[in-house]
Amino acid sequence: MQISIENLSHCYGAIDVLSNVNLTFNPGEIAVIIGPSGCGKSTLLRLMGGLEEPCQGAAYIAGQVPEGSLNPLTYIFQDFALLPWRSVAGNISLVLEDHKLSKRESEAIINDVLTRTNLSEFHDALPRQLSGGMKQRVAIARALAVRPAFLLMDEPLSALDSQTRELLMDDLVELWAREKFSACYVTHNLGEAVRLGHKVIVLSRRPGQVRDVVEIRIPLEERRERSAELEDVQQQLWQMMREEALAADRELADA
Amino acid sequence: MPNQTQPQHPVQRERKKVPFRGGGFKPRPIRFVAPFVFLVLVLFWEFGSQTGFISNLVLPAPSEAFHAFMDLYNSGLLWKHVSTSLYRLVFGWCIGTALGILVGLLIGLFSLARASLLPLTSAFFPIPKIALLPLFIIWFGIGEGSKVATILFGTFFPTVIATYGGVDNVERGLIRMGQSFGMSRFSIVRKIILPGALPAILSGARISASIAIILLVAAEMIGAEYGIGAYVLMAGSLFATDQLIVGVAMLSILGLCVSWLIGRTEKALLNWRG
């Protein structure tokens, strides 16, 4: 399955947020979208998954949706979006309950995703008992439970401290090595971008346009050791973003 | 270089501990204080009455009030009064709360309902329902109907306001999460919005229950044969102050019981808040 964005523009009232974006997202790779704050990268992700309607243009799904996928376009949110009144298992079962599965089937799915994310022992814990990193792992498990064709990740590590972020990045790399999932990953953190992205899409400041697409050919699993090479890419990305970020920073919020 | 190991500023002999200035502003529960205060008050009151320090005309002694209570108990009318009042209270409060939650949800969820019903709610909420009692008597009859209706209307409006406020305060991120996983509208309302609004609904229930008790007495003061309110009214018109105290004490205990019940419900339903 492929997602393509064609001539997409979006505005909130009189403010243009995105203008004429054309992008293609391929299966089995992680595409990272970076850009200065307020450039519309999160909006782009919401438009891709149908949580908002674009003013112009559209996002399309091409090809067959993989069989057994309950929710082809599945989000992982920055603030985890776990229901505080449901346990870990309850939060995962929440997204399965609307899909006419038998009790046994959904229990099997829950146990399976909890095992895959090393969360089995937290089956009955409430979100308030978990650390931020654990909460995001639960959210990842919940996303995997609906067998997504594409993961849409909206700054999934931005609410976490830097050590937890490192740990979760390793988890994501390991997960990708095992499952080869497809993802669109929005972040403002260049370190995450070069560690996780097969390609990095750089957006300009508002109204967001695609400024450049940088492919990184180093395999994800080797990136930890080859950080020197990644440093060059990161510098290259930063040069591109610097001016934009500087200009975006000086804009008045409601101008 | 022996000087380098020595501190530049030698430790001064004369020193003071940094004064502590944090803490406080955090009341914690202390057990048995409440009953103790209550007991001391009643004992002081009894002592004052016995010594004539408090005139019996001004305030009857607690022991006299207790005798009045025993009289009421022995006459067999105690349960009659209490059960009649409880029936009106429970019936009126339950229907009023159920309707209030329903309308509050509508206001919270649908723009049209909000535009039409919210101004109505704001217009009707401040009307003292007691003032409408004569109308209720005409509409619902002098019997149980008008009394239940008074309580029902009294609890309905605060519940509406608490519920729609609670719905408004449910995190939008959680609702968006539900939509992103393709949950149906009904599922989102039932599994995300309602539990999210529950804390607000329960604190609304606390307020509406107190309003219900106040209105209960008011309604029973007009044309009721039995009920705690009728008992208080009768005692008042006979200037039987000991019976008056008994009636008022029963209302107070009723209020305590209701508050305790809601507290238990909160503990049971909101244990996820920790």
How do the SSEs of chain A run, as a string of H and E? EEEHEEHHHEHEHEEH
CATH class of the largest domain in chain A: Alpha Beta
- The portion of residues assigned to helices of chain B is over 70%
Gross morphology of chain B: flat
SSE-based structural type of chain A: alpha/beta
Mean pLDDT metric of chain A = 90
CATH topology of the largest domain in chain A: Rossmann fold
Quick one: overall form of chain A? globular
CATH superfamily of chain B: MetI-like
Rg of chain B, please?
Answer: 28 Å
| Cα Rg of chain A | 18 Å
Q: Which features would summarize this protein structure in a list?
A:
heterodimer; A: 255 residues; alpha/beta; Rossmann fold; 2 domains; six-stranded mixed sheet; three-stranded antiparallel sheet; 7 helices; 36% helix; globular; B: 274 residues; mainly alpha; MetI-like fold
Walk me through this protein's architecture.
The complex is a heterodimer of chains A (255) and B (274). Chain A has 255 residues and is α/β, with parallel strands linked by helices. In chain A, 36% of the residues lie in helices and 23% in strands. Chain A has 2 domains: 165 residues, Rossmann fold; 65 residues, no CATH class. In chain A, strands 5-6-7-3-8-9 form a 6-stranded mixed β-sheet, sandwiched between helices. Chain A has a 3-stranded antiparallel β-sheet with strand order 2-1-4, with helices on one face. Chain A is globular and about 55 Å long. Chain B has 274 residues and is mainly α. The mean pLDDT of chain B is 91.
Task: Give the helices and strands, then pairings.
The complex is a heterodimer of chains A (255) and B (274).
Chain A: E1 2-12, E2 15-25, E3 30-34, H1 41-48, E4 56-62, E5 73-76, H2 88-96, H3 103-116, H4 132-145, E6 150-154, H5 162-179, E7 183-186, H6 190-196, E8 199-203, E9 210-215, H7 227-249
Parallel strand pairs in A: 3-7, 3-8, 5-6, 6-7
Antiparallel strand pairs in A: 1-2, 1-4, 8-9
Chain B: H1 2-5, H2 33-51, H3 62-75, H4 77-109, H5 111-124, H6 133-140, H7 144-169, H8 172-180, H9 185-220, H10 228-237, H11 241-269
